[in-house]
Structures are given as C-alpha cells and as structure tokens.
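Sequence in, structure out. Go.
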Amino acid sequence: MDGVEAGGRPDGEEMTKFRIPRSAFRVRLWLVFVLVWVAGVLVVDTLAARGVRGPFDIDWRVLRWRGPWGADLFKFTAWFLVPLVLSLPRLDPGWFGVRRWRRADWWLLGGLAIAGAAAVAIIPLVPSLRATYGGMSSLPSAHRWLVLRHDMVWTLSWLLGWEFMHRYFLLRPLMRSWPRYGWLIIPVFEGAYHLQKPLIEAAGMVAFSLVLTYWAKKRQNALLPFLAHFFVELELMVFRVVM
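Output:
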C-alpha cells in the first residue's frame, strides 16, 4: 500500500505530514496559556471592581489590593509582575527602546497625544462621560493636588502592566502563531474589558487599540503605545483637576 508499511503505519515520509513539530506544539501551548491568563485576570479584575459575589459565594472584592497612595497592587502583580517574570527567559529589550522607531513615529506619537486631548475635551458634551469623569474645580486646591497624586500613582500601577501584558506578553505569541490576523484579538480583549464603562469610551478604546497594536506589531516595539496611552491618561487627570 502506498505510504503505509506492512503494519499499517505510515512510512517516514507520510509521518511528517501528520506529526506536529515539537517546537510548534510548544508555541501553541504557550499561546493558549497566555490567552487564558490575560482573559482570566481581566475577568477577575472586572468582578473585583464591580463587587460581584459568586460563584460559590466568592467575594471578589478581596482582590482590591491597595498600596501606598492608591496603587492597585492586584493589577500591578497580575498584569505586570507575573507576565514579566514569565517573559524574562526570552525577553527582547528592543521592544522597550527607541532604536526601532522611525522619524515618522515621533510625529505619530504627537498626533496620538493631540487626538487624546481632543477626546478628553468632549467629555463635558457627553452625559455618560461627564458622569464618569467629574471635575474637581469646586474642591480646595490642596485637596485637588492630593487627588492628582493619588491618580498618578494609581494610573502608573496599572498602565505599565496593561501595556506590557497586551502589547508584549500577548502580542508576541499571537504574532508567532497567527502572524497576519492574530493581533486583532487584542483590541477585542481591550474593548470587552471597557464595556463596564460608557459605550463611547469602549468604542474609542477599540479604535485606539487597533492603532497601537498594529504599530507595535510592525515595529516590534511597545514603548510608543505606552507613551501614547500615558499621555491620554495624563490629559484626563489634568482635565479633572481644572474642570
């Protein structure tokens, strides 16, 4: 029989068509783990933030770990520390510097900062956003600066992990397994997480993520997405202080 030995098993040439290379299997297994980890910690964080109880009468609020000046220790640990430790054996430092940037990327960063400022400027015009991000102009100046310091520490405690987890820890295995379209999973994750906020913000996050993730994939770099995201958060903090 063609391609089959006497015992009914494919010969060496045919076996290669059915055997999954060990390296490819490890890549797929790692991708499955990363997908489950990212989806899991996002769901758990949402349950904790919403104060959900269950199943089995679990009080997810116990995961609201708060550190000095409002630092979110759960996000810092689950989104940054654990993915960083798991990534260390094959960490690519080029993802975190500017050596892979091109001159136009600096203009892109400026454009994204301007677009973020424009998005923040429409907050007073959208009732759902205005209710979510109220201003503090009626508060004493000293209190506003305390809130600003709190917001800065809180933002950095989760933003570093948000960008590392999505545009390095998750993006790299997606690029290896599904190089053409795998990156599109990240805007889906980010948009789904933001459904707990106003829909216009969730839609904006998807659009923002599409730009940042595509750029990170093309440049194999996560620094610009982090800076662009940080500028938007900083603009939001300034808006809340002065409005």
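Check: The longest helix spans residues 141-177. Residues 1-18 have pLDDT under 50 and may be disordered.
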